[in-house]
Amino acid sequence: MKKLRLISSDSHVVEPADLWQERIDSSYRNRAPRVVHLENRDQWYAENDVPIGIFGTTGQAGVRFESPEKLSFDGRETDIPLGGRDPEAHVRDLDTDTVSAAVLYPSVALTAYMIPATDLLSAIFRSYNDWLSDFCQSYPHRLKGIGMLNVDDVGEAVGELKRIARLGLVGAVIPQDPGERRYSHPSYERLWAAAQNLATPLSLHQFSTRWIAGKPPGLLVRDKEADPAGSVNKEVTPRNALTDMIFSGVFERYPGLKVGAVEFELAWAPFFMDRMDAVYEGSVAGFRKRFAGGALPSDFFRKNVFLSFQEDDLGIKLRSYMGNDSLMWASDYPHAEGTFPKSREIVNRILTDVEQDERTRIAGGNVAKLYGFPLG
């Protein structure tokens, strides 16, 4: 059997403690994210006291295979693998894991969406995008970065999307839950058009939930230890976002737009697609407007939505319903739930009964095509 070329569709950097103090516009420096050393852990804060991230599970690569009892939300900045913040070390770890290349998402910047102040959020994302562009430039054929967008002001988001394309970043995160203005709202039209015209995929990534007025600011990630339901059912939020996009006709108007559900696994998607079609075709709550050519919501899902997964055996068994061109394996390095350093072993296991052409696409071919990695 031919050896698979692995490309991770969802790996991560772990932002250095001094990133925003060094990079952010000077007028925001006293409000920028910073690391506070607490008794049992290091914690990211923004503004005066808004918690936005931790170091524990963001850097415990491989611990689940060696000592799963040691997995913890507690952790120090000094515990993070060097590959989280140094491109040369990241590539060395790719080689250790026999992974050819990786698409890079942030860690703490994802949780920054829970900062109420929209001007600060935009400044955080601009400086992060600059830093990530520099991170990837040393290995442009192996490391490709995904920028961050604040969609509170759609015109500003479009401007930043164009800027990150000039920086060489290959995609952008938008919040999986944008808050009070859902993705069916017509104000997003300029964003959908710009992403299509730039051929820049947009991603809905875990933890990227926008703060809503009246709720406590920030995100105490440690609280998730006591909330397994939130982790078990984490795909509910991107399902809502994709339903709004599909039923409001976003993909019919912008057929070249690509939107991904990233770090939510796969097996939920067939049931979700079936439910969308059932509601569209027969429910009182269904969609009154008919799509052209008899298309169903599931058709747009297969054509316009991509899915990044790590280790979903059941999802692979259901792959024919989703469409193989949309499925993209990911290592999630260096996060605790990732597949490093056993990525090849895991991919070979879950794809063992899959035909060679499908295996090639799922393991790396689909992400190479989407983001322009050299064909190998």
Describe this structure in words.
This protein is α/β, with parallel strands linked by helices and 376 residues long. The chain has one domain (7-16, 82-371): Alpha-Beta Barrel (TIM Barrel). It has 16 helices and eleven strands. The protein has helices spanning 19-23, 63-66, 87-96, 108-111, 118-137, 154-167, 189-198, 228-232, 236-247, 250-253, 268-282, 297-304, 313-317, 319-322, 343-350, 356-371; strands at 7-12, 34-37, 42-46, 50-54, 101-105, 143-148, 171-173, 202-205, 259-262, 305-309, 327-329. The strands form two sheets. It has an eight-stranded parallel sheet with strand order 1-5-6-7-8-9-10-11. Strand 7 (171-173), helix 7 (189-198) and strand 8 form a beta-alpha-beta unit. Helix 6 runs parallel beside helix 7. The protein is globular. The two termini are 17 Å apart. The model has no long low-confidence stretch (mean pLDDT 93).
